[in-house]
Amino acid sequence: MYRVLVVDDEMIIADGVYEVLQSIPQLELDVYKAYSGIEAMRQFDRTRFDIVLTDIRMPGLDGLQLLEKIRERWPQCRVIFLTGYNEFSYIYSAIQYERVSYLLKTEGYEKVIQMVEHTVAEIETELRAQSLLKIAQEQLDDMRGMLQNDYVKQILNEQLDVREINQEQFDELGIPLKADHPVLIMLGRSNSLSNRTTYSEKSRQLYRIKKIAEQYMSSHVSFIDAVNEHMDLIWLIQPLGNNLEQEGWERTLTFVQGNLELVQAACRESVGEILSFVLDDSTVAWGGTAERFSTLTMLMNYRIGQGGGMLLLDKQMVEHELQKSDGSQREKSQIRQAKLDQLADQLEHGQRVEFRNTLLACAESLKNIESMHDVPAQELYYSIGLVFLSYMNRWNLVETVATQIGLHKLMQPGEHESWRVAFEYLSRVEEILFNLQNQEEERRANAIISLIQKHIKDHLHNPDEVSLVKLAELVYFNPSYLSRLFKQVTGTNLSDYISATRLSRAKSLLENPNIKIQEVAEQVGYGTATNFTRYFRKITRMTPLEYRTSIFNK
């Protein structure tokens, strides 16, 4: 839907063009009018317009001055000047601008319609134009570092399907690695970064550390670096070039190991940061990077001694220590925090299918565990239950669903006879919560649409009150979104609903012989009987008077 503003100090011209543009259903225009340049500026302060048709000679603020104001506020707006034969000296300077055209007032309404249709076509063409794609590509290049960082984080947090980890994505994002070969993972942490007082200061330090590491590693290895939400530094590493055989990997590992002490020393001396590193000692396929990264994070947190300046290059000993106390089932039942965050995010955003798939993946890890006393399995159940409980508490749903789900079971895995039954219960909780989401979304949408419909019926006499911009302001929505929501809920375009409501009210009023046609026109939002008659005849194929006569002759 495109918003159009008609500006002319001659009311009969502004009203006429306004009425004509409202009658172009194929374009779905949202049309407004103003009787002066000053009034038009007030409209521009409220919302964006796509097309403005304006007289060029008006008192107070003329068309050329209005053009300057439009360019300041909404530079993408198209302007069509309505001119007379003797005004070409005025129009000459205006048409030097892009997105400006003109037509003669004497050319008639058909020409106005053609010009607006042509302008809409230009807008749609520009939206698809290569120039915009070029701009988007330039912006993408500027954002590439941020996109690379986000992509790596999603891989390591298991938020991407393995099919999304491919060479096409790597090339598009400028990642200098090969998607069909494994990687080494290295994790770094500044033990003194927390002493920095501001986020920007911490970011600058991390950037300096990355540049120092790049200086020591880029000559012999390919890598991509990233920073996670805990401000840990992450490197994904491969041998440089095509040297991806076993010997190449061994040389790469040796090279990185040999340079980490230099990186630590350089960071300590030049930026005042004490770094700890955990370097994986074996490669991992891309599909296993999330699990391996989780292990490396645990090793970094494990710390030996005080942990300051730790350099851990062989993880086997520490992994053995970690597993001794956790039993043989640890890897089967362990759930990473990233997966819990993913569940919470999917529930919050109403992503039902994605949530179900994630939940089933969690349940799969417990299918061979028989004991209900298995501690890692209990941890997994409690963690998922806490996601549900937090959501219900945040949205005040506890009392609503307590009896439906048997709330006492949510944080008591012992209430279930097996882990299979426990996860069937969690699946029922999921289904109830998503059903409530859908019902609440429908309720809110219906309440908003009912409010809009009532406002339209109560204010038909005032066109400003039933404009799309005004209606959107009532419910604090973007006008375009309100238009789409109204169509989604009612199956009818908002403009068609307003038109149908006007027609119904007009017919009802015309059935009362004591109400003059001028009064009917005013009550349904048409200032004059002439404008009302033109509208009524267009819809019903008869004038208001003919309609009234037909009613009384029945």
UniProtKB/TrEMBL annotation:
Indicate the segments forming the Response regulatory domain, all copies: 3-120
- HTH araC/xylS-type domain location is 446-550
| Stored SMART domains | HTH_ARAC, REC
Residue numbers bearing the 4-aspartylphosphate modification: D55
InterPro entries annotated for this entry?
A: CheY-like_superfamily, Homeodomain-like_sf, HTH_AraC, HTH_AraC-typ_CS, Sig_transdc_resp-reg_receiver
Keywords of the record, alphabetical order, are:
DNA-binding, Phosphoprotein, Transcription, Transcription regulation
A Pfam family that the UniProt record links to this protein: Response_reg
Q: Which PANTHER family match?
A: ARAC-FAMILY TRANSCRIPTIONAL REGULATOR, HTH-TYPE TRANSCRIPTIONAL ACTIVATOR RHAS
User: What is the recorded name of this protein?
Assistant: Two-component system response regulator YesN
